[in-house]
Design brief:
This protein is mainly α. The protein is built from 15 helices and no strands.
Length: 283
């Protein structure tokens, strides 16, 4: 029986922190712009002790971005001894004030058990706060929690609702997960045509799981006529796009590509390889 691809739901913690930190440091504080700018400048030139003092003053006055940066400095040990507990304390203050990026970060931390004790219920709580503010990444992660019954009661209908919200915002992971729900009939009547529609949208963005899923659909003739050329093309596109942590899925895509190739004529194989070479994002 064909094994269903498993999609990792978690954003890489380091990527989340660095991306949001960069976003925060590009901005200015509406209330205390000069002080925030000075703190930001000190941080960028590596004067972490000066930056730490300035960000702390702002953080204690309720500046959520300063609270996040201060937490990040404790997490990284910049200008202060590394202290994950203190980092989380400041992250929580910013998250409780509604800073979406920090709410997502806290959800990821509790989900993965990095910097805090693993707590799926707490992860779901933070994901929900960010998801309700429209963050597509948090919506995907919260949907995953519901689909797995992790920190919440398993509820496919609720998972579907959050995946759809993310998918409709153009989030490729949300589109892929929504495709899986329709393909497998989780929380919705099984509908291969709808699954294909969402997989195609995610595949066009270069999502490896969606591309591999299209490969399987064409290989098996699920919702489409069986087409080895298209199956081989999608497996070829998917294989190099998996991350190093997704080696099992990558190996599976490559194995099925070889299985498809064994059933193809030389002309079909050449056509599939041409299509893969000429494919461009957005197609």
């Amino acid at each position: 029986m064909l094994r269903i691809l498993r999609i990792h739901c978690l954003e890489w913690l380091g990527v989340v922190v660095l991306a949001f930190l960069a976003f925060v440091l590009l901005g200015t504080s509406d209330v205390m712009a000069q002080t925030f700018d000075e703190a930001k400048a000190a941080y960028k030139r590596g004067d972490y002790a000066i930056a730490m003092e300035a960000f702390r003053n702002l953080a204690e006055q309720g500046d959520t971005r300063a609270q996040f940066v201060l937490g990040s400095m404790y997490a990284e040990g910049k200008g202060v001894s590394q202290d994950e507990a203190e980092a989380v304390r400041w992250y929580r203050r910013a998250g409780e004030e509604g800073l979406v990026g920090v709410q997502l970060l806290l959800g990821t931390m509790y989900d993965s058990g990095k910097g805090v004790s693993q707590d799926y219920a707490e992860a779901a709580r933070w994901y929900r706060l960010a998801a309700e503010q429209g963050d597509a990444r948090a919506q995907v992660n919260l949907g995953y929690m519901y689909s797995q019954g992790r920190g919440v009661s398993q509820d496919y209908a609720e998972a579907l609702r959050w995946f759809r919200q993310a998918a409709e915002q153009g989030n490729a992971k949300g589109q892929t997960r929504l495709g899986i729900m329709y393909e497998q009939g989780y929380g919705v009547p099984q509908d291969y045509a709808e699954a294909l529609r969402w997989y195609r949208q995610a595949a066009a963005q270069g999502n490896a799981f969606a591309q591999a899923s299209l490969g399987f659909m064409h290989y098996l003739g699920k919702g489409v006529s069986q087409d080895y050329v298209q199956a081989h093309k999608w497996f070829s596109l998917a294989a190099p796009r998996f991350s190093s942590s997704e080696r099992d899925s990558q190996d599976r895509a490559m194995q099925f590509r070889e299985k498809v190739a064994s059933k193809m004529t030389p002309e079909q194989l050449a056509e599939a390889q041409r299509l893969a070479r000429e494919w461009k994002a957005g197609q």
